[in-house]
Design brief:
The complex is a heterodimer. Helix content of chain A is 68%, strand content 10%. By secondary structure, chain A is α+β, with helices and mostly antiparallel strands. Chain A folds into two domains: 196 residues, Multidrug efflux transporter AcrB transmembrane domain (Multidrug efflux transporter AcrB transmembrane fold); 76 residues, 2-Layer Sandwich (Alpha-Beta Plaits). Chain B folds into three domains: 221 residues, Multidrug efflux transporter AcrB transmembrane domain (Multidrug efflux transporter AcrB transmembrane fold), CATH 1.20.1640; 132 residues, no CATH class; 259 residues, no CATH class. The chains are: A alpha+beta, B alpha+beta. At the A-B interface, strand 5, helix 5, helix 7, helix 8 and helix 9 of A face helix 9, strand 17, helix 19, helix 20 and helix 21 of B.
């Protein structure tokens, strides 16, 4: 079986249109990120307490909120799950002595004495700050090291194209996270780095082909060369994107942090495939033009 | 060529055998019933498995993960007196600064002291006069407090009754504690943050201990209540019985522990020991309890590490406890120590002490304890620990030592016995010292224990995660289900799209997963939920490698090349792309391992192993299979 046999799509011709569509989305995302909604940080970053509880009786989220307020906990966020009687209860505070835990216990027992705590997570404020720092370091560090590696294995302007594609992916995903108010947790950071790695895979496979074609042909038009290379690897790109999508879509049926991870990956696979074709390729053309005009 | 393929096949076979062996323990352990596991525990064989199996993370089996941090600001406040607003504000600002800049608290405190021109001697005159000296002392105090906290927490966690608790130092001032299967987080929290309880307890007369041991023997021999299950006798490991007579002497010969404290040695080592020793296998049936014990020096009982669980269980029996004399109980040493036997073997032994149940002297009376070199008398030049007691403590100590010269007084911290020196004379004045340490480190360790009661090392829980057992099981089920589904989808897709070649890739994929699991088991690693996610992603990457190769081969076939040369150039031209792509993934996982904590690390580790393994499975293994298929007869077509 073969989906695509010898394609000749002129990708570079409509790359401008494609990029402007995605820039529009990124732009909207950035506006939401900076001015409107910001990011929904999980307690990993903000500090606080997260309880995953299961009731035997039917309990409404509002009842839980009211009961918590009754014991002196305000600003609680109650979130439903796939199971009707299970809730995530997020509190902005975490007390090391367990005072908050006592209040929660009191409130929930008043609703349903037979409730069960499935999991709890408490994060003190300093851990959150530390984590934010480490996460930023990790993402920037990964971009820098990867850039260096590609300049070493290919040429400098290839690294430029690859990093441009990666920045595109991270901004795109962050924007969607801000829009949809999906939670940024430790797992999301892991997902971001996986997206970086995945999108890079695509870009490198393409660049490898471009490099190979540059070596075999002495004279070439850069546009044609890039178009040919993209078409040559297109079949692989689609197969791999499809298999990865299968996997992450299945993962998105999970619960807890894995689910968020999977959501981030679904977005990442789509934007990663897009950026390796429409961002990583055209950057090379732009650079090539610059070389020509300057020389 | 034939030879080369054979070599390749042999390499693959070796890898499969090694992976199989590494996984054998995990598989056989997971197939055991609870009863079989209990039996294994009693016979002390469980550890052998524990060191070789793939552990499930707390998120999969349920349990508690805690990060504790030393509260240095509080420690400094505890050390100061006459505190005023200036002092409080310096501590508070330093705390905020260190938090937001991620710097050392003491460094920031130093800056504050300099900036605000604070005279520290006003608050801590006992630590020195100049600011510089006092700050140096504070540094030392903070370091001491850390070791105290670690000692106390390790001891408590070990008594928690959790199998395989994890206690790790993280960075300078953090301790990570993992307790599997704990379902009462509140209790765990309280236990860990409670102030340490130091007590002194007199050791029971060896003759009393001896007769108690005999009556316990009698009880178990009469078979009224079997311990554990009917296999009671079989559970006792008889393999060590052959040389049990020598064991006694050997255990005595090694001068591992501290000689003596507070006085000269008053007892000879053999006094109690010999009669509790079993000479042959017949005796094992005769003395089901004492055959597990070895006599050590000074009336201390030694129990081999693997027998500790069984001894504990036998002593915990309600009816046995009724046999205990008034005000008596058994206490363990906090850790096992290594004893070299005469035949050169080394074995781990715990010490078991029979002590008064009620404290004879409270540890709170101790105001200071310090390791040093003895200045005069019999202890000149020796490593000793000097103690200072407050007035009330001094009076009680004088009374206690006066009435019990020649007896042994055990140092008990949170129910663990650190040592049991003998009392040489009546001690008045409240400044006793302990002598007979082999080296300075031993003396320092005991000083830490003695100070734990007097100067609490405040710790805060800064991060905790608890997963209930129900959710843990649900996570395992979910992980297995999702894993199977995504795996099956990918496998079927590959076969449909690439036919027989897809089948080859699938074989490689399965081998890849087996290798990852085997490596994790070999390193005794823990598989967490994010780890499972990493494993699933590995599937994607391994498939991609084969897709790259297969697409190239198809291209080459389209160009009209023969099967053999299409395979050759397919592999060689796909290799650079695979190498670069996978290498960048390796870079990302390294960075994740470096910066990530807990869950992220688990993800990165499995991904890293998976990517490296995929070089072997997706390239080497599949290539070998192709070679094997094409070398015998020239193939005209390739199923791809």
């Amino acid at each position: 079986m073969q989906f695509l046999k010898e394609t000749h799509i002129k990708f570079t011709e409509h790359s401008k249109k494609a990029i402007s569509v995605s820039l529009l989305i990124i732009f909207a995302g950035l506006i939401s990120l900076i001015f409107v909604r910001g990011l929904n940080y999980s307690i990993d970053f903000t500090g606080g307490t997260l309880n995953h509880v299961k009731f035997e009786k039917e309990v409404e989220p509002n009842d839980i909120r009211r009961a918590l307020e009754g014991t002196g906990i305000d600003k609680s966020v109650v979130q439903g799950t796939n199971h009707p009687q299970e809730y995530f209860i997020r509190l902005p505070r975490y007390s090391k002595e367990g005072g908050v835990a006592d209040q929660v216990k009191e409130a929930l027992t008043s609703l349903d004495p037979n409730y069960e705590t499935l999991s709890t997570k408490g994060v003190g404020p300093q851990i959150g700050e530390e984590l934010r720092r480490n996460a930023t370091f990790a993402i920037i560090g990964a971009l820098v090291v990867i850039g260096l590696y590609i300049s070493f294995r290919f040429k400098f302007y290839f690294a430029l194209g690859a990093v441009a594609a990666l920045v595109h992916d991270v901004l795109f995903t962050l924007g969607i996270f801000s829009f949809a108010q999906m939670e940024i947790s430790i797992s999301t950071i892991a997902a971001f780095l996986t997206i970086v790695g995945y999108s890079l895979n695509d870009t490198i496979v393409l660049y490898d082909r471009i490099r190979e074609n540059m070596q075999t042909k002495k004279r070439f038009d850069i546009r044609d060369l890039i178009d040919n290379s993209i078409n040559q690897v297109l079949s692989r790109t689609i197969i791999t994107s499809l298999t990865t999508l299968f996997v992450v879509v299945v993962l998105s049926f999970a619960f807890g942090e894995v689910k968020i991870f999977a959501y981030a990956m679904v977005i990442g696979v789509i934007t990663g495939t897009f950026s390796s074709i429409y961002v990583a390729g055209p950057v090379l053309i732009a650079w090539q033009k610059k070389i020509k005009t300057s020389s | 060529m034939f030879k080369k393929t054979r070599v390749r096949l042999i390499i693959i076979a070796i890898v499969i055998v090694l992976a199989g062996y590494s996984l054998y323990w995990s598989v056989s352990y997971s197939m055991m019933s609870e009863a079989e596991k209990e039996e294994l525990k009693e016979s002390g064989q469980l550890e052998k498995y524990h060191n070789r199996i793939l552990h499930l993370g707390l998120d999969l089996q349920g349990g508690m993960h805690l990060v504790l941090q030393m509260d240095t600001p509080k420690l400094i406040q505890n050390l100061a007196s006459n505190k005023d607003d200036q002092f409080y504000s310096a501590v508070e600002t330093a705390q905020q600064q260190s938090r937001s800049n991620d710097t050392d608290f003491l460094q920031e405190f130093r800056n504050q002291v300099d900036q605000k021109n604070i005279k520290l001697a006003r608050y801590m005159s006992d630590l020195g006069y100049k600011n510089e000296d006092i700050l140096k002392q504070l540094d030392q105090e903070a370091k001491d407090a850390r070791s105290r906290a670690l000692a106390v927490i390790r001891n408590r966690v070990n008594q928690f009754g959790v199998s395989e608790p994890i206690i790790q130092k993280q960075g300078e001032d953090r301790i990570v504690v993992e307790l599997a299967g704990i379902d009462d987080p509140q209790r765990a929290r309280q236990l860990l943050q409670r102030t340490a309880n130091l007590e002194f307890k007199l050791m029971k007369d060896p003759r009393v201990t001896q007769s108690l041991i005999e009556s316990i023997d009698e009880y178990y021999k009469s078979g009224e209540v079997a311990v554990g299950d009917t296999t009671g006798q079989g559970v006792i490991d008889t393999s060590g019985q052959e040389d049990s007579t020598t064991v006694v002497k050997e255990a005595q010969d090694t001068t591992v522990s501290v000689e003596d404290i507070l006085g000269t040695q008053t007892e000879t080592e053999e006094d109690v020991g010999d009669s509790t020793v079993v000479a042959d296998k017949e005796m094992l049936k005769e003395k089901p309890f004492s055959s597990l014990l070895r006599s050590g020096r000074n009336g201390i009982i030694l129990v081999e590490k693997k027998n500790k669980y069984l001894v504990e269980k036998m002593l915990g029996n309600e009816k046995v406890q009724k046999l205990f004399p008034y005000n008596s109980d058994f206490y363990w040493s906090p850790d096992a120590r290594t004893v070299t036997l005469q035949n050169g073997q080394t074995k781990q032994f715990f010490e078991l002490y029979h002590l008064n149940k009620e404290a004879d002297l409270k540890g709170t009376y101790i105001t200071d304890a310090e390791a040093s070199i003895g200045g005069g008398g019999t202890s000149a030049g020796q490593n000793i620990v000097n103690m200072t007691l407050n007035n009330r403590g001094a009076r009680e100590l004088a009374r206690l030592t006066g009435a019990n010269v020649g007896e042994r007084l055990a140092i008990v911290l949170d129910n663990s016995v650190y040592m049991a020196p003998s009392i040489r004379t009546k001690i008045t004045g409240g400044r006793p010292y302990i002598e007979g340490f082999e080296n300075m480190q031993q003396a320092k360790d005991i000083a830490i224990v003695l100070r734990a009661g007097a100067l609490p090392a405040p710790v805060n829980i800064i991060n905790e995660r608890t997963v209930g057992p129900t959710l843990g099981q649900a996570s395992v089920d979910m992980g297995v289900r999702l894993m199977t589904i995504s795996f099956v989808i990918v496998i079927i897709f590959m076969v449909i799209y690439y036919k027989k070649s897809g089948l080859i890739a699938d074989l490689a994929l399965i081998l890849n997963l087996v290798i990852v699991m085997a490596v994790l088991a070999y390193f005794n690693a823990t598989l967490t939920l994010p780890g499972v996610a990493g494993l699933i992603l590995t599937v994607g990457i391994a498939v991609d490698n084969n897709v790259l190769i297969f697409e190239r081969i198809r291209e080459e076939l389209d160009k009209g090349k023969t099967v053999k040369s299409a395979i050759d150039s397919g592999y060689s031209s796909a290799f650079t792309a695979i190498w670069d792509a996978n290498f960048t993934t390796i870079i990302t996982s390294f960075i994740l391992m470096q910066f990530g904590t807990g869950p992220v690390k688990g993800f990165a580790v499995t991904l890293l192993i998976g990517v490296i393994a995929s070089f072997f499975t997706a390239i080497f293994v599949t290539r070998t299979i192709y070679n094997f298929m094409t070398e015998r007869k020239v193939k005209q077509t390739l199923s791809i």
